[in-house]
Specification:
This protein has 136 residues and is α+β, with helices and mostly antiparallel strands. It contains 3 helices and 5 strands. The chain has a 5-stranded mixed beta barrel with strand order 1-2-3-5-4.
C-alpha cells in the first residue's frame, strides 16, 4: 500500500525553502555517488568526503542524483561504530534560493560548463567530412 499523499506533500514542503540559518551540527555537502542501500558519498566544501545515510522519510519520495546538494547532520549518529558520518536532513531542491543564503559555501559556486574560447578552436564536431573534390 503506498504512503498517503499528505505524507509526500509534507515532506516536499519541508524541503522546498532554505532555513534562515543552519544549526551548528548541520553542513552543506555535494553528493558524489550513490553507495547503495540509501547510502551516499558526500563531499563537504572543505573537500572532505564522508558516507551519509538517507532517512526513511525521504526514501522512495525524493531522489538524489550525483551533483545534488544536501544538508547533513553530523551529530545524528554519534553512537554508531561504522563508516557513516551523518544523516541527510534536507535536500536542496531550489538551488537558486539556497545560493542566495549567507551560509552557502563559496566552493560550491556554479561553474560554467562551456568555455567561451572553445568556439575559436577548429573543431570538427557536427561538421560533415571534407569532400574528395575539395582536397585536390
Amino acid at each position: 500500500m503506498p504512503r498517503p499523499k499528505r505524507s509526500l506533500l509534507a515532506t516536499i514542503e519541508q524541503t522546498s525553502s532554505p532555513p534562515a540559518a543552519l544549526p551548528e551540527a548541520h553542513r552543506l555537502a555535494r553528493i558524489i555517488q550513490a553507495a547503495g542501500n540509501n547510502l551516499y558519498s558526500a563531499e563537504f566544501a572543505s573537500g572532505e568526503v564522508t558516507l551519509v545515510q538517507m532517512p526513511a522519510r525521504f526514501r522512495s519520495m525524493i531522489w538524489v542524483k550525483r551533483g545534488s546538494y544536501v544538508v547533513i547532520n553530523e551529530m545524528a549518529l554519534p553512537n554508531r561504530d561504522n563508516k557513516i558520518g551523518g544523516e541527510i536532513v534536507n535536500i536542496v531542491r531550489d538551488e537558486k534560493l539556497w545560493r542566495k543564503e549567507a551560509y552557502w559555501p563559496a566552493q560550491f559556486e556554479k561553474r560554467a560548463t562551456i568555455n567561451a574560447d572553445s568556439e575559436d578552436d577548429e573543431s570538427t564536431v557536427g561538421r560533415m567530412p571534407p569532400n574528395s573534390d575539395d582536397e585536390t
